C-alpha cells in the first residue's frame, strides 16, 4: 500500500536572501531567512498542493537544523526520515538580486549534513511506501551520497515506486568552479555527464533546464543532447524553458510545447523547484504531462515574481486563482495576494483564552495609587506570565514597554502572543488612535507576534479619516512583514459610555474601507442578538477572519460570564482576552507590598481558571 505520494531525497538548507534589491551580494545589509535546497523546496511545494510528501535528508544538530526540520513539519512534510547529524552543520546559502539577469549566490556546503545522508538512514519499506521518489543531480556529485541515491533507486525499482530525476546541476557543487561562482549554471564536464547518464535507465521522468539537458546529454546542441538522452532512457523528458514554459519529449512522439505565463521576473532562484512541484502534483495524481506541465509553469511563474522560494510556493486555490487571472506579478492580483497571505499564517487557534497585561497607563496609575515605583512593573509582568502558564492560558497580550523581558521569555513557547502598537489613550481629548510603535519597527518583531491595535471610534459618526489611515498603515505593514492583526474596537469615542449597539455599523464601515483584521477584540455584549449580528457581519465580509475575542474592561467576572453565555452558537467568537478583571486587585496589593509573589500568581491563576470554565460552559444549560 502506497501511503506516501512522494519522497524527496537531497538538499535541505537555509537560504538567506539579501533584501537590498539591486545591490551586489557584498553590499547587502539585511537578509531574509527561509527554508531552501532543491529537494526541500520541492517537498514544501508538493505538500502545499496536497501531496503526501516525505523528506529524506540530514540536518545539523544546531539552530538551523532545528529550523529546517520545524519548517518542513509546519508545511505538512513527513520528517520521520530527516536525521540529525551530530558532527556536521546544516547547509547555508547567501543569495542576492543584482538585476534581472544577475543572481549571485554563495553555497556554504563543505561537508554539510545533507550530503552525509546514508543508506542506513532509511529502509526498503520506506521507499516502497511511496508512489514516487525524487532524486537530484547534486546527490550524485559525491561518491558517498551517490551510493545512497543508488540504494534508494534500487529499492524504488524493486517495489514499483517511480523515480524522478531533477538534473539540478550546479557546477560549484561538483567542484568545477570556485566558491565565488555559485550562480554559474553550466560548465562542461565528462564526469558529470557520465554520472547523470548512468542513472537515466532507472528513471520514469527526467526534468531539467536546457543547460542541464546539455550537461546530461554531453552536447551543447539541444537536439543532439536530447537524442543521446533518449538513447539512454525511455522516460519522458521535460525541458524547462523559463518564460517560454517547457517542452515535453516523450518516446515515440514529437516535442510538445506548453506555454508559460507572461510575468515580470524578480528572482529566478527557486523557479525550477516551484515548476517541479506543480509538475509532480499533476503527474502523480494522473493528470497527464501536458496538464501537469501547465501547473508547473504557473507555479514557477508565481515564484519568480517574489523574493523567496519555499515560502512563496502556491497552494491549490492560489495556483488556480493565478492561472485564471494571469497577472504580470503574482501579487498584482488582489485575490492571489490574499490567498497567499492567508495560507502563510502561523498555527491554528480554534480557541483563545488569553490573559491580557499589555496595560501601561493603567498600571502606572496603579503604581501611583499604591506608592510603588514603575520599576516594579517588569517584575509584575513576569509574575502575570507565570499565572497565565499556571492557569493553562492559550495566549497572552503583553507590551514591550514594561514587558520586554516577559515577551522574550514567552516567545517560541507555543503560546499565542500579541503586543500593542498604540499609545495608551490618556485624556478625553486624545485622538481615537495614536501609534507608539512605527510600522517600520514590525520588521524587528518575531513573526509569531500578533499586532494588536486599540481604537476608540466615535459611534454614530463617520469614521475619523486619520484613524482609518493609521489602521490601514498598520495593516499594510503587518501584511508585508508576515504578522497577523488583532483590532480592538471600543465604540465610545474615548470620552463616553460604550455604545455596544454601534458595533455592527462601525465594523461594516471599517470593512468598507478595506480594514479586515485577522482577529477582532470586542467588548462583552449585553444581547445575544447583537453577537449573532456581528457573527453574520464578519462571515459576510471576511470568511478568513480568525475570529472574535471578548475583552474585559475591568468588568466583574459574573458580567463577563453572562456575556459569554450569550455567544453560544456564534462560531466566530473564539474566546476572550481579559486583564484587569483578573489581576487588578491582586496587582494593587502586590505593588503595595502586601501580597507575596506566589500568592499573586495563585490568585490570578485561580481567577483566570474560573473565567476559562465560564467560557467553556457557555453553551450548557
Structural features, described:
- The protein is an alpha/beta fold and 621 residues long.
- The chain has 2 domains: 4-343, UDP-N-acetylmuramoyl-L-alanine:D-glutamate ligase, CATH 3.40.1190; 352-616, Aldolase class I (TIM Barrel, Alpha-Beta Barrel).
- It is built from 20 helices and 21 strands.
- Strand 15 (395-398), helix 14 (404-410) and strand 16 (416-420) form a beta-alpha-beta unit.
- Helix 6 (210-217) packs across helix 7 (222-232) and helix 10 (316-325) packs antiparallel against helix 11.
Give the topology, please:
Blueprint (H helix, E strand, L loop, with lengths): L3 E6 L3 E6 L12 E6 L1 H12 L3 E8 L2 H12 L3 E8 L5 E5 L9 E4 L15 H5 L1 E7 L6 H16 L3 E5 L23 H11 L4 E5 H8 L4 H11 L4 E4 L5 E4 L6 E3 L12 H15 L3 H16 L11 H10 L8 H10 L8 E6 L3 H10 L6 H14 L4 E4 L5 H7 L5 E5 L28 E7 L9 H17 L3 E5 L13 H10 L6 E5 L4 H14 L5 E5 L5 H10 L6 E6 L1 H12 L5 H20 L5
Parallel strand pairs: 1-4, 1-8, 2-6, 4-5, 8-9, 9-10, 10-11, 14-15, 14-21, 15-16, 16-17, 17-18, 18-19, 19-20, 20-21
Antiparallel strand pairs: 2-3, 6-7, 11-12, 12-13
Helix pairs in contact: 1-8, 6-7, 8-9, 10-11, 12-19, 13-14, 13-20, 16-17, 18-20, 19-20
Amino acid at each position: 500500500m502506497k501511503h506516501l505520494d512522494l519522497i524527496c531525497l537531497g538538499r535541505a538548507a537555509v537560504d538567506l536572501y539579501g533584501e537590498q534589491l539591486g545591490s551586489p551580494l557584498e553590499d547587502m545589509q539585511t537578509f531574509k531567512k527561509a527554508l531552501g535546497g532543491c529537494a526541500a523546496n520541492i517537498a514544501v511545494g508538493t505538500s502545499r498542493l496536497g501531496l503526501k510528501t516525505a523528506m529524506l535528508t540530514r540536518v545539523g544538530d544546531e539552530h538551523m537544523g532545528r529550523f529546517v526540520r520545524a519548517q518542513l513539519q509546519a508545511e505538512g512534510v513527513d520528517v520521520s526520515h530527516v536525521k540529525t547529524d551530530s558532527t556536521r552543520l546544516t547547509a547555508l546559502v547567501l543569495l542576492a538580486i543584482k538585476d534581472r539577469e544577475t543572481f549571485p549566490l554563495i553555497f556554504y556546503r563543505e561537508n554539510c549534513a545533507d550530503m552525509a545522508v546514508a543508506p542506513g538512514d532509511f529502509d526498503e519499506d520506506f521507499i516502497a511506501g511511496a508512489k514516487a521518489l525524487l532524486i537530484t543531480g547534486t546527490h550524485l556529485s559525491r561518491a558517498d551520497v551517490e551510493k545512497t541515491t543508488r540504494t534508494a533507486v534500487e529499492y524504488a525499482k524493486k517495489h514499483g515506486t517511480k523515480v524522478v530525476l531533477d538534473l539540478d546541476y550546479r557546477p560549484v557543487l561538483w567542484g568545477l568552479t570556485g566558491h565565488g561562482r555559485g550562480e554559474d549554471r553550466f560548465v562542461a564536464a565528462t564526469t558529470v555527464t557520465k554520472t547523470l547518464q548512468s542513472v537515466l535507465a532507472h528513471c520514469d521522468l527526467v526534468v531539467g533546464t536546457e543547460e542541464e539537458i546539455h550537461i546530461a546529454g554531453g552536447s551543447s546542441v539541444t537536439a543532439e543532447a536530447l537524442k543521446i538522452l533518449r538513447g539512454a532512457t525511455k522516460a519522458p523528458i521535460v525541458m524547462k524553458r523559463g518564460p517560454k514554459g517547457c517542452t515535453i519529449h516523450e518516446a515515440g512522439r514529437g516535442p510538445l510545447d506548453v506555454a508559460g505565463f507572461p510575468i515580470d521576473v524578480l528572482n529566478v532562484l527557486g523557479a525550477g523547484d516551484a515548476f517541479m512541484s506543480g509538475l509532480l502534483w499533476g503527474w502523480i495524481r494522473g493528470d497527464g504531462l501536458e496538464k501537469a506541465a501547465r501547473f508547473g509553469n504557473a507555479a514557477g511563474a508565481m515564484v519568480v515574481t517574489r523574493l523567496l522560494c519555499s515560502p512563496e510556493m502556491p497552494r491549490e486555490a492560489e495556483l488556480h486563482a493565478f492561472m485564471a487571472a494571469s497577472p504580470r506579478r503574482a501579487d498584482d492580483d488582489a485575490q492571489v495576494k490574499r490567498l497567499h497571505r492567508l495560507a502563510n499564517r502561523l498555527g491554528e487557534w480554534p480557541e483563545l483564552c488569553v490573559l491580557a497585561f499589555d496595560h501601561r497607563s493603567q498600571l502606572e496609575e496603579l503604581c501611583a495609587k499604591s506608592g510603588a515605583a514603575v520599576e516594579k512593573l517588569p517584575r509584575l509582568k513576569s509574575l502575570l506570565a507565570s499565572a497565565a502558564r499556571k492557569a493553562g492560558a492559550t495566549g497572552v497580550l503583553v507590551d514591550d514597554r514594561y514587558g520586554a523581558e516577559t515577551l522574550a521569555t514567552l516567545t517560541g513557547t507555543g503560546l499565542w502572543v500579541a503586543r500593542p502598537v498604540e499609545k495608551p489613550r490618556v485624556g478625553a481629548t486624545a485622538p481615537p488612535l495614536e501609534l507608539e510603535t512605527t510600522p517600520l519597527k514590525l520588521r524587528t518583531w518575531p513573526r509569531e507576534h500578533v499586532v494588536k491595535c486599540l481604537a476608540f471610534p466615535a459611534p454614530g459618526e463617520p469614521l475619523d479619516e486619520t484613524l482609518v489611515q493609521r489602521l490601514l498603515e498598520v495593516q499594510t505593514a503587518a501584511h508585508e512583514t508576515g504578522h497577523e492583526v488583532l483590532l480592538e474596537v471600543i465604540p465610545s469615542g474615548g470620552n463616553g459610555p460604550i455604545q455596544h449597539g454601534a458595533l455592527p455599523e462601525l465594523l461594516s464601515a471599517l470593512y468598507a474601507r478595506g480594514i479586515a483584521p485577522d482577529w477582532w477584540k470586542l467588548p462583552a455584549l449585553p444581547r445575544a442578538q447583537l453577537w449573532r449580528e456581528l457573527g453574520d457581519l464578519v462571515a459576510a465580509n471576511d470568511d478568513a477572519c480568525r475570529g472574535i475575542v471578548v475583552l474585559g474592561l475591568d468588568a466583574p467576572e459574573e458580567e463577563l460570564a453572562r456575556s459569554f453565555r450569550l455567544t453560544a452558537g456564534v462560531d466566530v467568537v473564539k474566546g476572550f482576552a481579559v486583564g484587569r478583571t483578573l489581576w487588578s486587585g491582586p496587582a494593587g496589593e502586590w505593588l503595595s507590598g502586601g501580597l507575596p509573589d506566589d500568592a499573586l500568581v495563585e490568585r490570578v491563576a485561580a481567577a483566570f481558571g474560573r473565567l476559562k470554565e465560564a467560557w467553556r460552559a457557555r453553551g450548557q444549560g
